[in-house]
Give the backbone structure.
Amino acid sequence: MPDRANDLIGEILRRVHEVIVEHDVTYEEYQTAKQWFIDVGEAGEWPLFGDVFVEHVVEEQAFGKREGSQGTILGPFHLPDAPLLDAPFELPHRPDESGDRTHVSGRVTGADGTPLANANLDVWQADAEGCYSSFMPGPPAGNLRGQVRTDADGRYAFITVIPGPYTIPLDGPTGKMTAAAGWSPWRPAHIHLIVSAEGYDPLVTQLFIDSSDYLDSDVASAVKPELLVHPELRGDGEFELHYDFALAPARSHAVA
Ligand code: DHB
Ligand code: FE
Protein backbone atom coordinates (compact mmCIF):
# COMPACT_ATOMS: atom_id res chain seq x y z
CA MET A 1 0.00 0.00 0.00
CA PRO A 2 2.69 2.57 -0.80
CA ASP A 3 0.03 5.07 -1.96
CA ARG A 4 -1.87 4.78 1.31
CA ALA A 5 1.35 5.07 3.35
CA ASN A 6 2.47 8.01 1.25
CA ASP A 7 -0.90 9.75 1.70
CA LEU A 8 -1.21 9.20 5.45
CA ILE A 9 2.39 9.79 6.48
CA GLY A 10 2.68 12.76 4.16
CA GLU A 11 -0.52 14.31 5.50
CA ILE A 12 0.40 13.80 9.16
CA LEU A 13 3.79 15.44 8.61
CA ARG A 14 2.22 18.32 6.67
CA ARG A 15 -0.15 18.96 9.59
CA VAL A 16 2.71 18.87 12.09
CA HIS A 17 4.63 21.33 9.94
CA GLU A 18 1.59 23.62 9.82
CA VAL A 19 1.33 23.64 13.62
CA ILE A 20 5.02 24.60 13.85
CA VAL A 21 4.53 27.47 11.44
CA GLU A 22 1.18 28.70 12.80
CA HIS A 23 2.36 28.62 16.42
CA ASP A 24 5.93 29.67 15.77
CA VAL A 25 7.31 26.61 17.59
CA THR A 26 10.78 27.26 18.99
CA TYR A 27 13.90 25.09 18.96
CA GLU A 28 13.49 24.67 22.72
CA GLU A 29 9.96 23.37 22.27
CA TYR A 30 11.12 21.03 19.52
CA GLN A 31 13.84 19.60 21.80
CA THR A 32 11.30 19.21 24.63
CA ALA A 33 8.93 17.34 22.31
CA LYS A 34 11.74 15.11 21.03
CA GLN A 35 12.77 14.19 24.57
CA TRP A 36 9.10 13.52 25.39
CA PHE A 37 8.82 11.06 22.46
CA ILE A 38 11.90 9.27 23.80
CA ASP A 39 10.46 9.23 27.34
CA VAL A 40 7.11 7.78 26.20
CA GLY A 41 8.98 4.94 24.48
CA GLU A 42 11.27 4.28 27.45
CA ALA A 43 8.30 4.25 29.82
CA GLY A 44 6.42 1.82 27.55
CA GLU A 45 3.53 4.31 27.37
CA TRP A 46 2.84 4.33 23.62
CA PRO A 47 -0.11 1.92 24.02
CA LEU A 48 -1.49 4.11 26.81
CA PHE A 49 -1.03 7.29 24.79
CA GLY A 50 -2.64 5.81 21.68
CA ASP A 51 -5.61 4.35 23.51
CA VAL A 52 -6.26 7.54 25.47
CA PHE A 53 -5.80 10.18 22.80
CA VAL A 54 -6.30 8.49 19.43
CA GLU A 55 -8.33 5.28 19.64
CA HIS A 56 -11.73 6.92 20.19
CA VAL A 57 -11.67 8.53 16.76
CA VAL A 58 -10.66 5.27 15.06
CA GLU A 59 -13.47 3.45 16.90
CA GLU A 60 -16.11 6.02 15.98
CA GLN A 61 -14.95 6.09 12.38
CA ALA A 62 -14.92 2.28 12.13
CA PHE A 63 -18.07 1.42 14.06
CA GLY A 64 -20.06 4.57 14.93
CA LYS A 65 -22.66 3.93 12.24
CA ARG A 66 -22.83 0.15 12.68
CA GLU A 67 -26.19 -1.49 13.46
CA GLY A 68 -26.83 -2.56 17.04
CA SER A 69 -25.25 -1.40 20.28
CA GLN A 70 -22.56 1.24 20.41
CA GLY A 71 -18.98 0.22 20.96
CA THR A 72 -16.17 2.26 22.42
CA ILE A 73 -12.41 1.94 22.88
CA LEU A 74 -10.68 -1.32 23.84
CA GLY A 75 -8.05 0.46 25.95
CA PRO A 76 -4.71 -1.01 27.01
CA PHE A 77 -5.82 -3.35 29.83
CA HIS A 78 -7.54 -6.23 28.06
CA LEU A 79 -5.86 -9.63 28.50
CA PRO A 80 -6.82 -12.44 26.13
CA ASP A 81 -7.64 -15.85 27.63
CA ALA A 82 -9.45 -14.75 30.78
CA PRO A 83 -11.03 -17.88 32.28
CA LEU A 84 -14.44 -19.02 31.07
CA LEU A 85 -16.44 -18.94 34.31
CA ASP A 86 -19.10 -21.38 35.47
CA ALA A 87 -22.70 -20.37 36.22
CA PRO A 88 -23.75 -18.68 38.44
CA PHE A 89 -21.19 -16.25 37.04
CA GLU A 90 -19.15 -14.05 39.34
CA LEU A 91 -15.95 -12.28 38.32
CA PRO A 92 -12.97 -13.62 40.30
CA HIS A 93 -12.15 -11.30 43.20
CA ARG A 94 -10.39 -11.16 46.54
CA PRO A 95 -12.31 -12.49 49.58
CA ASP A 96 -12.38 -8.96 50.99
CA GLU A 97 -12.87 -7.16 47.66
CA SER A 98 -13.99 -3.62 48.40
CA GLY A 99 -16.73 -1.86 46.48
CA ASP A 100 -20.46 -2.26 46.02
CA ARG A 101 -21.44 -5.80 45.06
CA THR A 102 -23.51 -5.61 41.89
CA HIS A 103 -25.60 -8.00 39.80
CA VAL A 104 -25.20 -7.19 36.09
CA SER A 105 -27.68 -8.76 33.70
CA GLY A 106 -29.37 -8.40 30.35
CA ARG A 107 -29.74 -9.96 26.96
CA VAL A 108 -27.59 -10.45 23.89
CA THR A 109 -29.46 -10.33 20.58
CA GLY A 110 -28.74 -9.68 16.96
CA ALA A 111 -29.53 -6.17 15.71
CA ASP A 112 -32.88 -7.59 14.52
CA GLY A 113 -33.74 -8.82 18.03
CA THR A 114 -32.88 -12.52 17.56
CA PRO A 115 -31.76 -13.85 20.96
CA LEU A 116 -28.21 -15.20 20.82
CA ALA A 117 -27.66 -18.34 22.88
CA ASN A 118 -24.12 -19.12 24.02
CA ALA A 119 -22.83 -15.64 23.17
CA ASN A 120 -19.59 -14.83 24.99
CA LEU A 121 -19.05 -11.78 27.21
CA ASP A 122 -15.38 -11.18 27.98
CA VAL A 123 -15.46 -8.82 30.96
CA TRP A 124 -12.66 -6.87 32.66
CA GLN A 125 -12.60 -3.86 34.93
CA ALA A 126 -10.71 -1.92 37.56
CA ASP A 127 -11.35 -2.57 41.25
CA ALA A 128 -13.02 -0.01 43.51
CA GLU A 129 -9.69 1.86 43.76
CA GLY A 130 -9.37 2.12 39.97
CA CYS A 131 -6.64 -0.57 39.68
CA TYR A 132 -6.53 -3.18 36.90
CA SER A 133 -5.05 -6.59 37.75
CA SER A 134 -1.74 -7.43 36.02
CA PHE A 135 -1.09 -3.76 35.22
CA MET A 136 -1.08 -2.07 38.62
CA PRO A 137 0.01 -2.98 42.12
CA GLY A 138 -2.81 -4.18 44.35
CA PRO A 139 -5.14 -6.70 42.77
CA PRO A 140 -3.80 -10.25 42.17
CA ALA A 141 -3.48 -11.63 38.62
CA GLY A 142 -6.88 -12.43 37.15
CA ASN A 143 -8.81 -10.20 39.55
CA LEU A 144 -12.10 -8.93 38.04
CA ARG A 145 -11.53 -10.62 34.67
CA GLY A 146 -13.57 -13.47 33.22
CA GLN A 147 -15.77 -14.77 30.44
CA VAL A 148 -19.48 -15.36 30.79
CA ARG A 149 -21.94 -17.06 28.41
CA THR A 150 -25.58 -16.37 27.59
CA ASP A 151 -28.25 -19.01 28.17
CA ALA A 152 -30.66 -20.47 25.59
CA ASP A 153 -32.70 -17.21 25.59
CA GLY A 154 -29.64 -15.02 25.12
CA ARG A 155 -29.71 -13.90 28.76
CA TYR A 156 -26.57 -13.27 30.78
CA ALA A 157 -25.94 -12.43 34.42
CA PHE A 158 -22.81 -11.96 36.47
CA ILE A 159 -21.82 -10.52 39.82
CA THR A 160 -19.04 -7.99 40.27
CA VAL A 161 -18.26 -4.81 42.21
CA ILE A 162 -18.71 -1.25 40.98
CA PRO A 163 -15.29 -0.12 39.72
CA GLY A 164 -13.73 3.15 40.80
CA PRO A 165 -12.68 5.92 38.44
CA TYR A 166 -9.13 5.65 37.15
CA THR A 167 -6.36 8.15 36.44
CA ILE A 168 -3.72 7.55 33.84
CA PRO A 169 -0.32 7.31 35.60
CA LEU A 170 0.44 10.85 36.73
CA ASP A 171 4.22 10.56 36.97
CA GLY A 172 4.83 9.15 33.47
CA PRO A 173 5.29 11.20 30.29
CA THR A 174 1.63 10.83 29.24
CA GLY A 175 0.45 12.13 32.62
CA LYS A 176 2.98 14.95 32.49
CA MET A 177 1.77 15.96 29.03
CA THR A 178 -1.83 15.90 30.27
CA ALA A 179 -0.91 18.10 33.24
CA ALA A 180 1.12 20.46 31.04
CA ALA A 181 -1.96 20.98 28.88
CA GLY A 182 -4.15 21.49 31.97
CA TRP A 183 -6.40 18.50 31.21
CA SER A 184 -8.04 16.14 33.67
CA PRO A 185 -6.23 12.76 33.82
CA TRP A 186 -9.34 10.83 34.92
CA ARG A 187 -11.52 8.21 33.29
CA PRO A 188 -15.02 7.72 34.77
CA ALA A 189 -15.94 4.35 36.35
CA HIS A 190 -16.53 1.75 33.65
CA ILE A 191 -16.79 -1.99 32.97
CA HIS A 192 -15.19 -3.30 29.76
CA LEU A 193 -16.80 -5.99 27.63
CA ILE A 194 -16.22 -7.75 24.35
CA VAL A 195 -19.50 -9.38 23.36
CA SER A 196 -19.21 -11.97 20.62
CA ALA A 197 -21.31 -14.63 18.92
CA GLU A 198 -20.79 -16.69 15.80
CA GLY A 199 -21.95 -14.91 12.68
CA TYR A 200 -21.85 -11.45 14.34
CA ASP A 201 -19.33 -8.65 14.59
CA PRO A 202 -17.66 -8.68 18.04
CA LEU A 203 -18.73 -5.64 20.06
CA VAL A 204 -15.91 -3.98 22.03
CA THR A 205 -17.56 -1.66 24.51
CA GLN A 206 -17.69 -0.21 28.02
CA LEU A 207 -20.56 0.45 30.42
CA PHE A 208 -20.23 3.71 32.33
CA ILE A 209 -21.64 4.03 35.84
CA ASP A 210 -24.04 6.98 35.61
CA SER A 211 -23.23 8.28 39.11
CA SER A 212 -19.46 8.39 38.44
CA ASP A 213 -17.42 11.57 38.46
CA TYR A 214 -15.62 12.55 35.24
CA LEU A 215 -18.32 11.43 32.79
CA ASP A 216 -18.02 14.83 31.10
CA SER A 217 -14.25 14.96 31.14
CA ASP A 218 -13.07 11.44 30.26
CA VAL A 219 -9.39 11.79 29.36
CA ALA A 220 -9.91 9.03 26.75
CA SER A 221 -13.06 10.68 25.24
CA ALA A 222 -14.75 7.25 25.21
CA VAL A 223 -18.07 7.99 26.95
CA LYS A 224 -21.22 7.73 24.82
CA PRO A 225 -24.67 8.49 26.23
CA GLU A 226 -25.93 5.09 25.02
CA LEU A 227 -23.41 3.38 27.30
CA LEU A 228 -24.50 4.85 30.66
CA VAL A 229 -25.89 2.37 33.20
CA HIS A 230 -27.71 3.03 36.44
CA PRO A 231 -26.97 0.69 39.35
CA GLU A 232 -30.06 0.38 41.59
CA LEU A 233 -29.78 -0.44 45.27
CA ARG A 234 -31.79 -3.57 46.13
CA GLY A 235 -33.44 -4.49 49.40
CA ASP A 236 -30.53 -6.75 50.35
CA GLY A 237 -27.96 -3.92 50.17
CA GLU A 238 -26.51 -5.11 46.87
CA PHE A 239 -26.90 -3.32 43.54
CA GLU A 240 -28.21 -4.41 40.18
CA LEU A 241 -27.84 -2.98 36.72
CA HIS A 242 -29.15 -4.04 33.34
CA TYR A 243 -27.89 -3.70 29.82
CA ASP A 244 -28.96 -5.35 26.57
CA PHE A 245 -26.43 -5.82 23.77
CA ALA A 246 -27.41 -6.00 20.10
CA LEU A 247 -24.76 -7.29 17.69
CA ALA A 248 -24.38 -6.40 14.02
CA PRO A 249 -24.16 -9.29 11.55
CA ALA A 250 -20.58 -10.26 10.66
CA ARG A 251 -19.22 -8.22 7.81
CA SER A 252 -18.17 -9.97 4.65
CA HIS A 253 -14.56 -8.82 4.98
CA ALA A 254 -12.56 -9.12 8.14
CA VAL A 255 -11.12 -6.06 9.85
CA ALA A 256 -7.71 -6.54 11.42
C1 DHB B 1 -6.88 3.69 29.44
C2 DHB B 1 -7.38 3.12 30.57
C3 DHB B 1 -8.60 2.53 30.53
O1 DHB B 1 -9.15 1.93 31.59
C4 DHB B 1 -9.31 2.52 29.36
O2 DHB B 1 -10.48 1.93 29.39
C5 DHB B 1 -8.82 3.12 28.24
C6 DHB B 1 -7.59 3.71 28.29
C7 DHB B 1 -5.53 4.23 29.47
O3 DHB B 1 -5.02 4.51 30.55
O4 DHB B 1 -4.94 4.33 28.39
FE1 FE C 1 -10.62 0.85 31.36
About this structure: The longest strand covers residues 101-110. The mean pLDDT is 96. The pocket of 3,4-dihydroxybenzoic acid (ligand 1) is lined by residues 48, 51-52, 73, 75-77, 166, 168, 187, 220 (CB under 6 Å).
